[in-house]
Amino acid sequence: MRGQGRAGTRLSQELTTLRQRIAELEALNAGRERAEKELRRSEATARALLESAAEGIVIVGSDGRIVLANARAAEMFGYPREELTGQTIEVLLPERLRTGHATHRAGYFGEPRVRPMGLGLDLAGRRKDGTEFPVEISLSFVESEDGLLAMAFITDVTERVQLERIARQSEKMAAVGSLAAGIAHEINNPIGVITSRVELILMEAREKGLPPGVTRDLQVIEKHAGRVAKITQGLLSFSRQAPWKLTDTDVNQVVEEALLLVEKQFTKERIALEKNLAAGLPKIAGSPNHLEQVLVNLLTNAREAMVGGGTVLVESRRAHEMIEIRVTDTGPGIPPEVMARIFDPFFTTKDEGTGLGLSISYGIVREHGGTITIESRPGGGSTFVIHLPIRETSTEEGTLHGERADPRHR
Description:
This protein is of the alpha+beta class. The protein is about 50% helix and about 20% strand. The protein has four domains: about 1-25; about 55-155, PAS domain (Beta-Lactamase, 2-Layer Sandwich), CATH 3.30.450; about 160-240, Helix Hairpins, CATH 1.10.287; about 245-410, Heat Shock Protein 90, CATH 3.30.565.10.
């Protein structure tokens, strides 16, 4: 009996110990479940923050392959997210930068550091369709179970760069415009005298007869005096000295009239003219003749760029509170170094030409309160994009728009 009592006591102690152990395990399990729940909540919060970020975020492993990209990054670069995962980060860079970037990447992982945004670096991203766009990138890093990870925070700065370019161009145009007006006025009078004198001498030559060589020389002088006169008129147009009358203007009608003017020459040179004009567009406060001049100039440039034929598409649509006009050609595209100067006065890549056409067009659009920009890449054609503000109130009586509205006086 005494042995049974001792056995019972041991059994009771073991049961008590077992219950305590079970209780400890249950508490440990509950703690683990709480920890797992907290971990899942933290992961969900981190993922929500990642997905809601206004910046594109790309996380890269030490092998240069993309581990994770948020929705904004996928949208920015035009890739499905699952297609980005596993790709090398260089796929998001222009081809000309890829080799050098691989070296920079290896250096970064060798000596990781936080690099803030906007250190004056001229960076570019490359979309899936091959188009490039300016970006700003800040870098950070984090240690993980799988090793060091780099985090790139990417901002598309296309709009800001475009606005800065427009501001610089406006300042440049204002300065050159003042100079151009002075030069044009100084040249206009003497060239008028030369032209009229040459015309009189040629009339006398026809009546009284002059040696053929002299007549030819006079005709050459007359031709080039006319060219100088044309340049001075361009300078005056560029400097916008004459006031304009702004009226309610139907942009589609202006487009149709511009197309009618160039149609015959386009057909002759085997260039197809296509249009896609949105119906029922609101009117703008504009000068139809000046806007037609802009469109004819853009269409002429497109024609001259497509030696051997091609296609030009003119489109119009409403873009928020603006009317957008797009003139797209299938030409060879424009090199970046030309793009940077394309609206500069007297800049031209043609053998003959004053280099004032696009400058004058730029000035006309700006005087309408609009913008004109260009999208192009070598081998991919070019698109000039015009935005003109919609006029909410009628201008039926017409308003004068001239020197007071000039950007130099604003």
